Structure formats: C-alpha cells, structure tokens
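Changelog entry

Holo records now carry the ligand SMILES as an explicit input line rather than a separate metadata file. Below, a converted record for zinc ion, shown in the new format.
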Amino acid sequence: MCSLHTMTRSHTPDAPSTTLPTLTRIRRLGIVNAWLVAEDDGLTLVDAATTGSAPAILRAAEALGRPIVRIALTHAHVDHIGALDALAAALPGVEVAVSPRDARLLAKDRTPVPGEPADAKLRGGYPGASTRPTRLLEPGDRVGSLEVVAAPGHTPGQVAFLDVRDRTLIAGDAYATLGGVATTAALNWRFPLPALATWHRPTALRTARELRALDPARLAVGHGPVVDAPGEAMDRAIARAAA
Ligand SMILES: [Zn+2]
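Structure line, unchanged by the conversion:
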C-alpha cells in the first residue's frame, strides 16, 4: 500500500486541489470530441462539438459537479462550434475564447488575410455562429491551466492547448487518432475527413512538428481516443505525411 501511495503521488506532482479528473472526454456521434478541463473555479469546455450537443455537454458538466465557466475553441469548423450558440444561451456570462483568425470565420467572414499562402483554401464547413467571442487568444496566453499554442494549417487560425499541470495536449484537428495517430497534413484512408477539410497541408505539417516538439504526455484530439505517451506515434505520423 505504501509504495502504491508513493507512486500515485510521484505521478501527480502538480495535481490540482480538485479531486476531479483534469480531462473528461465528451463523445458525439461516435467520432466527434469535446473536452471538459477541470479547474479550481469550474470547467473549461474545449470545443463545442456538433449542433444538438449542448444537452449532452451540460449533462457531462453536471455529472462533474462544476459549472462551465469558459469555452475555448480550437478552430471554427462546424463539428467544433455546433453547440456554441445553445451553450452560450444556457450559460450566461460564459467566457468564449478563440483565435483572432478563426474568430473571423466564426463571424462568417471567409476573406483571406494578407500574407496567407496563395495555395491555401478554406475547406470543410464554416457555418459561423451568432455568439461573439469575449476573448481573442494569442500564443502563450493562458486559459486556466491551458497554455495557448499556435496550430495553424487545418484552419488558418487553429490553436492547441497544453495543460501545464500534466502536459496533456489538446490538439484540435492538427492530429486525429481515429484509425491510428495521423496528422491532418496527409490523407489517412482509415479516417480521411480531417485531412480533406484542411486549409493548407504544408502549414499543417509544420504545426504537427511543432506540437510534437512540445513532447506532450497525452494527446487529445477532435476525433478519436486519447493517446498516452504519443511521441513515437506522432513521429511516425509526421514521417508518413512528409514522405
Ligand atoms: Zn474536426
């Protein structure tokens, strides 16, 4: 028992004072994830899944016994913002955070920004939302325990979130893990959708390398299960995409 206690403690040196798991997966339609990140002041919802997902997301928060106090979006694709308006209506005063670049897409503005690659193209669904962000995220910002990391490529302004407590990386669609760990810089025939919806694959590949260099302890993505110790799988995914 003693050694077990010691092991548990040594594995969670920066554990928050909460007894909740730091990360809870909400799965929609079998293939779409949203995430609840536990903080001392409540929950951060990362991504808002598909339209109609608000009741399931609110139930998941209720089961954890904490309110959702922030919604942080990795990017503005339909399967990551679908329930945003319904959640914002149900959670008055909730913080809504997104990158400035994808905030334009959230506001249904599809015009390119000067300096973007000429061969980039918006792909996938960008239905926008009525909800306006209350906060625009820059790399290095903190959303609770999550550090904002630039992750462009899948969309022009995608961001990832690194939990500084345990180095869990919530990578949006920079990677997918459904059908194996893959970048969205190249087609994975076992789950091609994220790559097909990618704005600029060379940028996505650069992002995949930058996220790998963070040496995450866990990889959580928009599509597929959490992968522990994902480094080698990320290396293989990058090598495949770069081939
Ligand atoms: Zn997605």
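Spot-checked after migration. The helical segments are 2-11, 54-64, 78-81, 84-90, 100-106, 193-196, 201-213, 231-242. Residues 172 and 221 are 5 Å apart (CA to CA).
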